[in-house]
Amino acid sequence: PATHGLRNSHSLLEHKTARRQLQVDLQLFNDPKTVLLKSDADAHADADIYDAQQQQQQQQQPLPPSGRFPYGFTSEDKNCIPPEEVEGMAWALRELYETHGVRVFPRNGLLLGIIRHGGFLPNEKVPDADLGIISLDVDRLAMTPETWVKNEMLRVKVAEGTFHLARKGLEENWVNWKGMNPVTGEEYPYFGVRLSRRMRVDGISSSRITWAGRSNAVYPYEHGAGGFFFPRLNIGSYNHKSHTEEMLRYNTEGANYRRLDTDELLTEENNLKGKPIGTVFNSALDCMVLKQFYFTMIYVPCDYDEILTAFYGRNWSHVESRGEEGKGNTAAMKVSAEEDLQSLRNGPKPLCASSIEGPLPWE
Predict the structure, then answer these.
(1) pTM over 0.85
(2) Which residues have a Cβ under 8 Å from the Cβ of 215 and sit 6 or more positions away?
(3) 288 near 35, Cβ under 8 Å?
(4) Crossing angle of helices 83-100/18-30, nearest 10°?
(5) Which 3 state secondary structure label does DSSP give 289?
(6) How far apart are CA 262 and CA 273, in angstroms?
(7) Residue of 59, 75, 285, 288 with fewest CB within 10 Å of its CB?
(8) Residue 30 pLDDT more than 70?
(9) Which position has the higher pLDDT, 185 or 16?
């Protein structure tokens, strides 16, 4: 049920603060903010650099002339995104970051979809809520008195409820990732975190889950100048071959898939079974900025161009496809210029119309 990080939750119409949050979202649309985890002096200096980078990135970002991405609705429940999932995810990431400094952010295809289309990738058959969480932030919370409780679960208070962060272990079927620190050889204590946001009733956290998802750990990179890395999770019997083809091609286009133990750029020669492979981000990930996510806003790293380039090469803004089936065991290929333009014009994967009754809260 949680394989793709998407779960059914309460209707938007049931949420008592939907209209209040809409006002906040509209303000963020008109005046999006950037949050830096630095001192004021460093923040101002970085802001100047960031503004210059934003101007350069906006030249290649496929944002419509209106400044906002279009999005639509469909009654085909198997081919749409529940609006409550969009709202729940956006709120969750904002609350965790702004209240507790926990960096949970879209990665891989979800980040690509948000930056390039304004939502989930339109050509994904089964949309993945790809989230990353900085392992250092989880470790910091674990050291806070009375927050780490039995069953290895963190509970942190937020404005309207409680977040439960349950550490999850490593899966066994990944070809090039075994959960070991590539420099020290020590086993990481967890691979990711299951997130669940529970509402408060009369000041007490209830069992009612209003949003739930899973986020995989993004670890500090201990080679060279540092940064972070995300392990490559190829499954031998499913997508290892196709993903290897993609990694090698993307590396020729400026991506940053590396052997994590030797710090070598991945090539056909050093791509050996069982050796750790990951995407390396040359970023401190200490700055987050709000971007459009359908009808709301969601935090993404300020260095999203660097991260997308590390995953997909410098041509990440061009749409690719895995064919009509859209399965992971087929390597992605770039579509024609006409298909690319049409995809960008159509917006993200549509929202589910059937889960909304009556006027939409954000209209």
Answers:
(1) no
(2) 5, 104, 131, 132, 133, 192, 193, 195
(3) yes
(4) 70
(5) strand
(6) 14
(7) 59
(8) no
(9) 185
Residue 130 one-letter amino acid: D
Residues 6+ apart with CB under 8 A from 150: none
Amino acid at 197: R
Q: Structure tokens of 191?
A: 């691979």
Q: Give the E-state strand segments of 37-184 in sequence order.
A: 73-74, 104-106, 131-134, 148-149, 153-158, 161-168
Regarding predicted confidence, which is higher, 43 or 226? 226
The answer to whether 12 and 296 are in contact (CB under 8 A) is: no
pLDDT of residue 50: 39
Burial label, 75 (beta-carbon count in 10 A; 0-12, 13-18, 19+):
exposed
Q: Are 276 and 302 in contact (CB under 8 A)?
A: no
- Give dist(CA 307, CA 323) in Å, integer: 25
CB burial string 162-172: b at 16+ within 10 A, e below: bbbbbbeeeee
- The DSSP result for 100-128, as a single string, is H---EEE-HHHHHHHHHHSSS-TT-SS--
SS (H, E, C) 201-252: ECCEEEEEEEEEEEEEEEEECCCCCCCEEEECCCECCCCHHHHHHHHHHHHH
Distance between CA atoms of residues 249 and 342, nearest Å: 24
Angle between helices 108-117 and 304-312 (to 10 degrees): 120
Residues 229/218, Cβ–Cβ less than 8 Å: yes
pLDDT(213) > 60: yes
- What are the tens digits of pLDDT across the range 52-96? 444 444 444 444 544 688 999 988 767 789 998 999 899 889 988
C-beta separation of 85 from 2 below 8 A: no
Phi, psi (rounded to 5 degrees) for 234? -90, 135
Matching residue, tokens 């806070």 = 144
Describe the strand order of the beta sheet including 34-36 as a list of residue ranges. 34-36, 287-293, 296-301
CA–CA gap between residue 76 and residue 354 (Å, rounded): 8
Q: pLDDT band at 315, cuts 50/70/90?
A: very high
Is the pLDDT at 101 greater than 70, yes or no? Answer: yes
The confidence score (pLDDT) of residue 19 equals: 31
pLDDT at 9: 29
